[in-house]
Amino acid sequence: NFRGVPSFNADALHGLGVFETLKAISELVLKKLAAGTAA
Length: 39
Fold this sequence. Notes:
By secondary structure, the protein is mainly α. Helices cover 46% and strands 0% of the residues.
């Protein structure tokens, strides 16, 4: 993608990749919070 941010393939209808996406996003937010920057 042009912004260079992580992208995730998930299919909520079939439940594919949903948990993995949630986990990855949660980890990114927690890392930003621990670093003291806004999420």
